[in-house]
């Protein structure tokens, strides 16, 4: 059977996605088909693919609806190599923008759009820079692997953080080191992360704290996608790691510069414990129709 899809291309700070709507969950693409769509030479090209599916149409959506019945739409997120990920921070903003633009959902200023994901429901609000997402609870995953990367002289210690998906954050001291990294090669973790990991390399900006806001710069190698221009969950993990290392008195508001732009991260208390939010832009760039060759 030939599959033809109407899609929209979008990005958040250069982290780009192919999005399409499948309300009833009837279009089940294989990992090979997803990898073809995301291929920049043979397909459309993207860091990931997002299927807009009603939570009630997907087994994974049942947990979202149980958590919050307002989670009508589920973000079914896949990496560029066709592997599944639990969460995508830039993806949630772009997905929210897609739902609103396509008329599939509404969210006036001050209202909350609730999105189902494999990492729990996410509350999204429009703000000055685009969208702010409450990413929910986070945790140190207990790992401190050594990370080797191409052009890094020696293995560096990393901090394992889970923000719905797994991350390993490495602090570098100089911008030269960050710029010199060759992330065309996947960093090697010792010991390896059981489910794989997104790896962030971070340097402090000068000064590290300005007007009470922490400032860092990072590059990322994403699990299943390679180096990308931005990673929302990675920015969140990076800010949390640097605050952890900075110790008492470190700020709860961070600006994170990535090759594709800037995102904001805030940590704030809630009744169930500390949450962390991600804010930044979301843009839709073009629409088209694709026919899968297999
Ligand atoms: N780009 C994303 C993260 C996408 C998922 C990641 N590659 C994984 O496998 O966990 C983001 O903006 O958070």
TrEMBL record:
Residues of the site described as Could be important to modulate the pK values of the two catalytic cysteine residues: 167, 222
Localization (cell): Cytoplasm
One GO CC term, this protein: cytosol
Keywords: Amino-acid biosynthesis, Cytoplasm, Isomerase, Lysine biosynthesis
EC annotation from Swiss-Prot or TrEMBL: 5.1.1.7
Residues the entry annotates as binding substrate: 15, 79, 89-90, 165, 198, 222-223, 232-233
Catalytic reactions of this protein: (2S,6S)-2,6-diaminopimelate = meso-2,6-diaminopimelate
Any single biological process term in GO: lysine biosynthetic process via diaminopimelate
Pathway(s) where this gene product acts: Amino-acid biosynthesis; L-lysine biosynthesis via DAP pathway; DL-2,6-diaminopimelate from LL-2,6-diaminopimelate: step 1/1
Predominant place of localization: cytoplasm
GO molecular function: diaminopimelate epimerase activity
Catalytic residue positions: 88 (proton donor), 88, 231 (proton acceptor)
InterPro entries (alphabetical): DAP_epimerase_AS, DAP_epimerase_DapF
Subunit description: Homodimer.
Described purpose of this protein according to its UniProt entry: Catalyzes the stereoinversion of LL-2,6-diaminopimelate (L,L-DAP) to meso-diaminopimelate (meso-DAP), a precursor of L-lysine and an essential component of the bacterial peptidoglycan.
Family, as annotated: Belongs to the diaminopimelate epimerase family.
Listed name of the protein: Diaminopimelate epimerase
Lineage, highest ranks first: Bacteria, Bacillati, Actinomycetota, Actinomycetes, Micrococcales
Name of encoding gene: dapF
